[in-house]
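From the pipeline queue, job 12 of 40. The input is one protein chain; the requested action is below.

Action: predict structure.
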Amino acid sequence: MKSHRDKSILTLVFSTLLSFNAMAQDVSEGSSYYLPKTAIEFSIMIEKTTQEPGDLCMYAERFLKKKDVATESGTAYRILNIKMGSRGIPDTAKVFNPAIDAKHSIASLKVDEQGIILGVNAEVNAPEPTAVFVPALKPAPLNARDYLTQDILSAGSMAKMAELTAQEIYDIRDSKSQLNKGQADFMPKDGEQLRIMLNNLNTQETALLQLFEGTAVKDTVETIITIVPEKATDEELLFRFSAKFGLTDTDDLAGEPYYIKVEDLHKTVSNTATVEDAKKRSDDANIYANLPGKIKVTLFKSDRELATKEFYAAQFGKTLPLDNELFGKKLFTSLIYNPVTGNIDTIKTEMVKK
């Protein structure tokens, strides 16, 4: 396995809840634009469980026949799911100055807030911001002592308190059974009353059981890891994860390593609007596009493959200029770019009326 201290072929950025917020802007003469590189994003949903023991945990097996209840505080983490996506970032090696002048039919240019080109002579809607993960609202925690009877509260010892609480739990279960069988002394008048009564009994039972079983509070957090692959690799450390500590530093051996494999599929998008002859001319429009290459990204750990997905990535293809005739005095050309790859999604041309 490669040492993590070896020179990495990936630019790795850790961030939480990153979003790409792009706004189209007009660009005038003298301005510049970037073509994008393609970044791969890993959205990792992690559940954190905080366990607190109940006050009567030591009596759980004796009175409720419950084993393996928590007797100490603890925190545990687990990965719920991992998703892969892509977004564009400015390629600082591919910055161009469009020829917005009387010799060319470039009336407007659209870029996003990062300076990545979105369109030429076209109305372009800015990409939608990445949706920010919002955890679901958690119900208010129950206070078990709010459901204790006077006899339980006045018990002379913890053992007696546990015995009386356990008996109260069994009485609640018996009441629920009688209601469900229609044999209770005071049966509800309709289904809605029955539902309310059963819900109240369930709440009481849950609260009292907390005294024995303790509480487990679950929180879900989304973490985004962004990489910019530059070439193929068979094994590159992406992150480490521990069930006790969650995401850890990449050099922290307490975390299990997760790796990625990047395969160059050697398949490039073609575009008839580009030209292979890139010799500089005095009338160049300086409008370029990426012809992205296809890659396959696989996430795995020591014992199994976790996810795999194919992407078109700008840096695995090539960059070519567009035919200057498209922006001469005879043609008016509209372009819309893919903001992730820098390829041209749509192109329209029309003759300029004299």
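Job complete. The chain has a mean pLDDT of 87.
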